[in-house]
Amino acid sequence: MTQTEITAPVSIFNELGDLCNFGWARGPFFHYDRSLLWTPRRLISESERYVIFSPTHLFAFEIWDTGIFGHISISAVSFLDKKISGKFEKCLLPMGTLELPNQSENTVIKKTVNDNLMEFICVEDGGRIIKVDAPRINRGNRLRGEVVLTAQGGSQSIATLSPWRRQKDSFQLIRCSPWYAVEGVMQFENTPLLFNRGRSWGIYEWTRTARPKKDIRYWAAACGMHRGQQIGFNVGYCSADSAAGTENAFFADGILHKLDQVTFRISPANWLSPWRFTSNDNRLEMTFVPVRQNSYQNNFLFHLLRSRQFFGFFSGKVILDNGDALRFNNIAGIAERRKTYN
Hints:
Helices cover 0% and strands 63% of the residues. By secondary structure, it is mainly beta.
């Protein structure tokens, strides 16, 4: 499949207000301006998500505004005893009041819901800071702390803009950066958890969507170190038309290697059994071994959001753009199936 690479900043709208410039990019080149959308606010979804992991723990932090529902959520997974804890704070009919920014750069997001604080700060050179204070995440225990996410110089991101066939006002705009080095401390269950640079990693995912009537999205991302090289990936698909550019990419030391279509193969009888991933260009073969699952559902009037998240480890082989084969084992990450109806 021939994909269209966008190599300079562009608007996702033309002078008539119609969607344009579909494709993929190696950075946040797509300009999104919510005020230019004709789509009703109740059909616009916006989210900011970070996943960070040390050798012993994984944390996922998310702020999500679907117009009908909003939430801030925290998931905490221990790789040592396979325990999972979580905090899910809802708000009904936010309709943009969570004030997530139009762009993924040079932003500060600070939200407090029911005494739970979550703050995402962009700093110079592409870095990020995450501050969290959740008083009762697990049986009254507190999660609080601050970590710094650092980007290697010259690191690239995968960004895509995709339309829906026969639903001309619907689109999906995604940016993912699965290559951050993480350092800092999280105090969890009365224990300080250290995130040491070189052994702790992070993923940033940014999405803006004008939703279709229904959709199912599959997504997975991971990051880590293998044989002295920092690696990561983002793979996924939904019912949007990805002919101009898929969101599938592998990263080696921050440099993007573009993949075509990737298929998730999951046992319907047991979602916690190993998953298998293959690409149609025969460049990626990968397995995912889930450690724990986290599920949630929002349902109000005619809107449904249902998500199943899985945390675990990825192993496999990828062919880089120069033809080299890179094998990797037990890279920590996340996989997800998310269903929406309007």
